[in-house]
UniProtKB/TrEMBL annotation, chain A:
Pfam families listed in its UniProt record: ABC_tran (PF00005)
Keywords annotated in UniProt: ATP-binding, Cell membrane, Membrane, Nucleotide-binding, Translocase, Transport
Organism taxonomic ancestry: Bacteria, Bacillati, Bacillota, Bacilli, Lactobacillales
Keyword Cell membrane: yes
Matches recorded under InterPro entries: AAA+_ATPase, ABC_transporter-like_ATP-bd, ABC_transporter-like_CS, ABC_transpr_CbiO/EcfA_su, ECF_ABC_transporter_ATP-bd, EcfA_1, P-loop_NTPase
Compartments, record wording: Cell membrane
Record family assignment: Belongs to the ABC transporter superfamily.
Record's keyword annotation contains Cytoplasm: no
Residues in ABC transporter domain copies: 5-241
Entry membrane topology: Peripheral membrane protein
Name of the protein described by the UniProt record: Energy-coupling factor ABC transporter ATP-binding protein [Lactobacillus sp.]
Location (main, coarse): membrane
Organism this protein belongs to: Lactiplantibacillus mudanjiangensis
From TrEMBL, chain B:
Record's subunit section: Forms a stable energy-coupling factor (ECF) transporter complex composed of 2 membrane-embedded substrate-binding proteins (S component), 2 ATP-binding proteins (A component) and 2 transmembrane proteins (T component).
The entry's keywords: Cell membrane, Membrane, Transmembrane, Transmembrane helix, Transport
Gene that encodes it: ecfT
A GO CC term attached to the entry: plasma membrane
Superkingdom of the source species: Bacteria
Protein name from the UniProt record: Energy-coupling factor transporter transmembrane protein EcfT
Automatic annotation (TrEMBL), chain C:
Protein name: Energy-coupling factor transporter ATP-binding protein EcfA2
Protein's UniProt keywords contain Cell membrane: yes
Gene Ontology annotations for the cellular component aspect, listed alphabetically: ATP-binding cassette (ABC) transporter complex
Source species: Lactiplantibacillus mudanjiangensis
Similarity comment: family membership: Belongs to the ABC transporter superfamily. Energy-coupling factor EcfA family.
SUPFAM superfamilies per UniProt: P-loop containing nucleoside triphosphate hydrolases (SSF52540)
């Protein structure tokens, strides 16, 4: 697999900042095409700043970013933005179109794609996120989860190679969150999309192939979800919720029960408990 | 959730009026306001009312919406009508005279005509806004402004601004209500006390609204940039307006109406 | 202070073509001193009900009794202010209500509206800031220079400054990271204890309901669907699913265990309850 995102020694400071402190310090990582990587970290750790550097919404102090073989610069930024679709946190503040269909078409209009192609792609994208029935609706009459699915349809229509989710589910109710996550998993299954999701949501992080932990503007750890989840209670400090099996393990320890130290999925945990009780 | 104004609200539907090209609807509505001034006798007003009521009937929108559209303006209308009756041209039988105030037969008739004009204009513009989504109106305005491109007027940008503004109206209304509730819960009385107290009560509403609007604007600009927006040039259009046979027929109907009005004005 | 709803109905824009009935025949009590969770699918009428708790909305039918004040459709808007001092509402994303030049002034805003002198209100502000766990040095800062989590705490301090007897929290942890959520919920539990508050929590987080509430009101389509203790409400997972509501994580996990054949006398709601039940079945410990 080739590397679609390559970040080398990235340093970033907000221009309006009055100190010399960096928001991102010497961040290097790469993502293979087709991979799903979760970036976690508590609020203010620099995760979103990192995401906004990747498509040139923010310009770094130093370092180099290569997206799909192109080095990010003023000349390539618009090409690179075409390759990256980005869904943000607030469902209301990224809805540009006056209706669902208009919003889905927005990126395509920007690329000057002929109308015939647009009509087809918008319909297909809406069908894929199961929002066809809402095509002519106005955003004010949609739920948060529906608005985020429309945003995803906009990405599907524009066909980027990379999808960045910047806390895209954090403002949704549990039902909306589940809907959006299911849609993302479906999109991932339908294409060789690379997904980079910035999140606090344990279910979203568990869907990833790899988790990067950011703290104070630095990349402090990386590993598979299972490796990261082994941290147990320390996960809260990393900006993640504890996976349920870890919470239960902690509670069992308080009751004096010896528990395995390796990470168990919910199913694994249930199996282990069943074995323990039935063998007793 | 907060306003009772009917004027300016779109009622979804599928009538022939709903399906007309918004450019046709916008231009013909303006044209209608112009030709109302041709009317000068009973026959012409009867014709205009018949035409307007037919258009309303075709739209399938309930009559009550139109009556409700007149209600908020009724005092303004009555005030104008009374001024007209009391102070304008005297002619015919004079019923009452005191100083500069005269109530004459002609004055009364004029008053009734002015009332009719108001009602006709309100009915027709209510019909326009009830049957045309704001977005289509903004498309129509964009099209009508297009000749200004010659003088480098940023028509595309203005049109996008207009459509984003329309899209955020409900969002900001909700926001306003939310902030008002939060401040009322902290003991603010909106709309009570003298003018200074009322102005002071506005500050805790306006500042949060500005702050949140700026934040929204910044988020929106970032999202637009991330989605490749580089300005109006070189963009293709998803939504296009189509002039159809029904729009030509509507235009012809207005032409016939004009001829009939002129005829009735001259010969009745 | 108890709040009592009797046959309450509420219609938005009554008498217009846009009239919509948001509440129908609500009969429910929020007991004095309780920690009541108000749950329901988005659009179930929770936020409309919430606005009746301090008479931001008046019922279109029925009566709401707040402490000893009775609110009917005919109640005049004039002297509702005193009532609002007793029932403080922290709305969703309360940081959006901040507007003053300094944190101190913003927290003092509420008390001053209820007649406190500026000096007294500023003193209260300093106390409240400590109460919500923020440093006194923030008092003279602009609220707009703070982090999102700090802004939210300042807004909550602004509501607490009115010394309400009932504290209503509308999704107070929305948008916070897990650590922020945990700290916030612990803070409310502590405040409730110290200040003897009646708490009403509107939430989608069933784990918070299980961990903190002692009374639950479930709403659906503008009606009260069920009331009871968390234990009672979460006994019927299928009924909850039909009303678009989830289970606490523990209860959901316990169901997986039950499917395997592990028995429970009572469905556990928190991980400690589950751990206790399991440890009991394992005969204390397995060392």
């Amino acid at each position: 697999m080739s590397q679609i995102i390559n970040v080398e020694h990235l340093n970033y400071r907000y221009p309006q900042q009055d100190t010399d402190a960096l928001t991102l310090t010497d961040v290097s990582f790469s993502v293979a095409a087709g991979e799903w990587v979760a970036i976690v970290g508590h609020n203010g750790s620099g995760k979103s700043t990192l995401a906004k550097n990747l498509n040139g919404l923010l310009a770094p102090v130093s370092g180099q970013i290569t997206i799909d073989g192109q080095v990010l610069s003023e000349d390539t930024v618009w090409d690179i933005r075409r390759k990256i679709g980005m869904v943000f946190q607030n469902p209301d503040n990224q809805f540009v179109g006056a209706t669902v269909a208009d919003d889905v078409a927005f990126s395509l209009e920007n690329q000057g794609i002929p109308r015939e192609t647009m009509l087809k792609r918008v319909d297909e994208a809406l069908a894929q996120v199961d929002m066809s029935a809402f095509k002519t609706r106005e955003p004010a009459r949609l739920s948060g989860g529906q608005k985020q699915r429309v945003a995803l349809a906009g990405m599907i229509a524009a066909r980027p190679k990379i999808l960045i989710l910047d806390e895209a589910t954090s403002m949704l109710d549990p039902e909306g969150r589940a809907e959006v996550l299911a849609t993302i998993r479906q999109m991932k299954a339908d294409s060789d999309l690379t997904v980079l999701s910035i999140t606090h949501d344990i279910d979203e992080a568990a869907s990833a192939n790899r988790v990067l932990v950011v703290n104070d503007g630095q990349l402090v750890e990386e590993g598979t979800p299972a490796e990261i989840f082994e941290h147990g209670p320390a996960l809260i400090k990393m900006g993640l919720d504890m996976p349920y099996p870890e919470r239960l393990k902690a509670a069992l320890k308080r009751q004096g029960v010896t528990v395995p130290t390796t990470y168990l999925t919910e199913k694994g945990m249930a199996d282990w408990l069943w074995q323990l009780i039935s063998n007793k | 959730m907060m306003n009772k104004l009917i004027f300016g609200r779109y009622i979804p539907g599928d009538s022939v009026i709903h399906r007309m090209d918004p450019r046709a609807k916008l231009l013909l509505s303006f044209y209608f306001i112009g030709i109302i001034f041709i009317a000068n006798n009973w026959a012409t007003y009867v014709l205009l009312f018949a035409f307007t009521l037919l258009a309303i009937k075709l739209s399938g929108v309930k009559w009550s919406f139109f009556i409700n559209g007149v209600k908020p303006l009724i005092w303004l209308i009555l005030f104008t009508v009374i001024l007209q009756v009391l102070f304008s041209a005297s002619g015919g039988t004079v019923y009452f005279k005191w100083g500069i105030i005269t109530i004459s037969q002609l004055g009364l008739v004029n008053g009734v005509y002015i009332f009719c004009r108001f009602v006709l204009i309100i009915f027709m513009s209510t019909l326009l806004t009830l049957t045309t989504p704001p977005l289509e109106l903004s498309d129509a305005i964009e099209y009508i402004l297009m000749p200004l491109k010659v003088v480098h007027f940023p028509v595309y940008e203005v049109a996008l601004m207009l459509s984003i503004a329309l899209r955020f109206v409900p969002t900001l209304m909700d926001e306003t209500e939310k902030i008002m509730n939060a401040q009322r819960a902290r003991g603010v009385d909106f709309g009570e006390g003298n003018i200074f107290q009322q102005m002071r009560a506005i500050v805790p509403l306006l500042i949060p609204l500005f702050v949140s609007s700026f934040n929204r604007a910044e988020d929106l600009a970032t999202a637009m940039e991330a989605r490749g927006y580089q300005g109006g040039e070189g963009r293709s259009k998803y939504r296009i307006l189509k002039w159809q046979a029904r729009d030509t027929w509507a235009t012809l109907a207005f032409a016939v109406l004009t001829v009939a009005l002129v005829g009735l004005r001259l010969y009745v | 202070m108890a709040i009592d709803f009797k046959q309450v109905g509420f219609t938005y824009q009554p008498g217009t073509p846009f009239a919509t009935q948001a509440l129908t025949d609500i009969n429910v009590t929020i007991p004095d001193g309780s920690y009541t969770a108000l749950i329901g699918h988005t659009g179930s009428g929770k936020s409309t009900l919430l606005q009746h708790l301090n008479a931001l909305l008046k019922p279109t039918t029925g009566t709401v009794t707040i402490g000893d004040r009775v609110i009917t459709p005919e109640t005049s808007n004039k002297d509702l202010k005193a009532l609002r001092q007793h029932v403080g509402i922290v709305f969703q994303f309360p940081e959006s209500q901040l507007f003053e030049e300094t944190v101190a002034k913003d927290i003092a805003f509420g008390p001053q509206n209820f007649g406190a002198s500026e000096a007294d209100a500023l003193k209260t502000a300093a106390d409240m800031l400590a109460l919500v766990g923020l440093d006194a040095e923030l008092l003279d800062r602009s609220p707009f220079d703070l982090s999102g989590g700090q802004m939210r705490r300042v807004a909550i301090a602004g509501v607490l400054a009115m010394a309400p007897q009932v504290l209503v929290l509308d999704e107070p942890t929305a948008g916070l990271d897990p650590q922020g959520r945990l700290e916030m919920m612990e803070m409310f539990a502590k405040l409730r204890h110290e200040r003897e508050l009646t708490v009403v929590l509107v939430t989608h987080q069933m784990d918070d309901v299980a961990n903190y509430a002692d009374h639950v009101i479930v709403m659906d389509q503008g009606k009260i669907a069920k009331t009871g203790t968390p234990q009672e409400i979460f006994q019927d997972p299928q009924w909850l699913a039909e009303h678009h509501l989830g289970l606490p994580k523990t209860t959901a996990f316990a169901q997986q265990l039950m499917a395997k054949g592990i028995q429970f006398d009572q469905l556990p709601l928190t991980e400690d309850q589950l751990a206790q039940a399991l440890a009991h079945q394992l005969g204390g410990a397995t060392q």
